[in-house]
Amino acid sequence: MEGRTVCAAAIQMSSTPDRGENRRVAEALIREAAAAGATLVALPELWSCHGLEEVYRENAEPIPGPTTEFLGSLARELGIYLLGGSILERVSGSERLGNTSTLYAPDGSLVAVYRKVHLFDVEVSGRRYLESANIAPGGEAVAAKAGPVTVGLSVCYDVRFPELYRLLALRGAEVLAVPAAFTLQTGKDHWELLLRARAVENQAYVLAPAQWGRKADGRWTYGRSMIVDPWGTVLSTCPDRDGYALATLDLGYLERLRAEFPSLANRRPRVYRGLC
Ligand SMILES: O=C(O)CCC(=O)C(=O)O
User: Fold this and answer.
1) Which residue ranges does the record assign to the CN hydrolase domain (predicted)?
2) What domains are defined for the chain?
3) Which pLDDT tens digit goes with each residue over 154-173?
4) Could you give the angle at which helices 66-78 and 19-35 cross, rounded to 10 degrees?
5) Which residues are bridge partners to 8 per DSSP?
6) Which residue in the list 49, 89, 116, 131 is annotated as catalytic?
7) Is 215 a catalytic residue?
């Protein structure tokens, strides 16, 4: 369809363990992005509480809960689709929390819930990360309609697992959301590379809001929130400060590209059936 466009914003912030402060910063940036014309606005991973694992449990909330109500009412007031990055979710019957992404419609309703599937249990530059100590992995891929576009949900480390994004693309995703808090060490070498690869191989827009700066535990996050088009071109990115990347997503262009350069359609799934 010609003329199908969406103005999207990927918000960049440097969250602290203080939920009230993070909410003030997020709200101001969401309002700014909406005033600049964005109708699809996305927050980064763990935007409401980040940087000190000792306080994660006490800052976790059920879904729906106070933070999802806040996001829903802001989406309704501003008349936008709002991707709530991710928050710490208290999951009934589980010791561990969810690292959970939510999507709201302009009427304030919660239209999708996705729990981070791939947990960041790695060692990098001598530092050990063990996300699974606090977080339980999700078990489902989620794509949802956001007005004229279909958005595929994911969180941060998920970006290293192309199978998830291929599944989302096959379910109709035209925008792949990757809210993140990438480490500085991995970000400088892999962040843009991975985002552009996911965009090119799935012929989809990538909307990647990110945490930046030094966290309460001393860890540095990479920032460089980014919007990438289906050809792999970076349309907008953020410098090292609070702000947002803003770009128009042209779904007519995406459809033309998928028709003229049909690499998605040229897949040979029979050859890769050993994958699963
Ligand atoms: O994949 C990476 O390099 C960073 C991932 C990460 O920081 C996370 O998932 O929290």
Assistant:
1) 6-251
2) 5-275 (3.60.110.10)
3) 999 999 999 999 999 999 99
4) 20
5) 40, 247
6) 116
7) no
